[in-house]
Amino acid sequence: MARLKILHETRYDYERPVSFGAHRLLIRPRDSHALRIVEASLKVSPPGPTRWTYDASGNCVCLFQPTGQSTSLIIVSQLVIDRFPAPLSPVRIDNPHTLTPIVYSREDHATLAPFIAPVTDDPDAVLLTWLRSLGARRDEPALDFLLRINSLIHERFDYINRYEEGVQSPLETLASGQGACRDLAWLMVEGLRRLGYAALFATGYIYAPSAESLRGAGATHAWCEVFLPDLGWLEFDPTNGLAESPDLIRVATTRTPSQALPVSGAIIGDPGVARLHVSVDVRLLDARPEAA
Questions:
Q1: Would residue 198 count as lying in a domain?
Q2: For residues 46 and 70, is the Cβ–Cβ distance under 8 A?
Q3: 168 shares its domain with 282
């Protein structure tokens, strides 16, 4: 077990005072067998009422209505969590349905169908052609195939800090050979969907002992989750080549990246020049073996 402290600060500064519409905050994980929240606090300025709920995907959401006018909007989330890692190795499932091509049971397929259907367009089958060029072998264990795709994206694409809003389409990422963590994750999600896998866009935080040890530290992070029979939802981080890593701290999983914005909302009035600053600090408080 590892105990981690997470400080996530989002600050908008405006040239002129503005009023605020409702805001949606997706910044708090949900308790699970892999993660337990020990402490949680949320500070906002300007102040306003908050209400916690769950969205259609079961993610923990804070609905926040700032009051009055201000030249800034500040949201500071502080968490202390216990992370219970579940290593992927040496798990191997002797189930013929986990071989390529993937086969889901009728019950699972009915639930997973929205996450199998691609969201983006690929009219000339560029993405599908690229996927097939990676040498998927019939009857290759699906887990081995996913680990291979995860490593290939990590090795073949350059990671960049991209400050523009939004996510590149998979075709843009393929053409440029580079992307931010959200772009590489979305490439993997949409690629796997075209091969019949149920895949989700995952967002959260990543623990890196040093700023240089893992890509994506110091900000919110994005990766891919894939459902396999008998194994359930598994995490793959193509930005760092990680799979089911204890360093990944999931906040939300969504069908599309636009549903996973940590902070979304509206301002009322002309802000003039607006600036956004986001910082994330994840540090280890304690690490000790789990009790027997």
A1: yes
A2: yes
A3: no
What are the C-alpha distances in Å from 156 to residues 14, 83, 90, 113, 226?
A: 39, 31, 26, 30, 21
Is the predicted pLDDT of residue 199 greater than 90, yes or no? Answer: yes
37, 152: one domain: no
| Distance in angstroms (rounded) separating the CA atoms of residues 216 and 228 | 26
Question: Domain containing 156: what range?
Answer: 96-245
Closest CA to 222 of 172, 264, 190, 180: 180
Q: Is the pTM of this model over 0.70?
A: yes
Do 161 and 201 belong to one domain? yes
Enter the tokens of residue 255. 């069908």
Nearest to 196 by CA among 230, 226, 173, 152: 226
Mean pLDDT computed over 116-127 = 94
Mean pLDDT of 195-202: 96
256's torsion region: left (phi>0), alpha (psi -120 to 50) or beta?
Answer: beta
Contact residues for 66 (Cβ-Cβ < 8 A; gap 6+) = 20, 23, 44, 46, 47, 48, 73
Would you say residue 91 lies in a domain? Answer: no
- Is the model's pLDDT at 268 over the cut of 90? yes
Residue 292 counted as domain residue: no
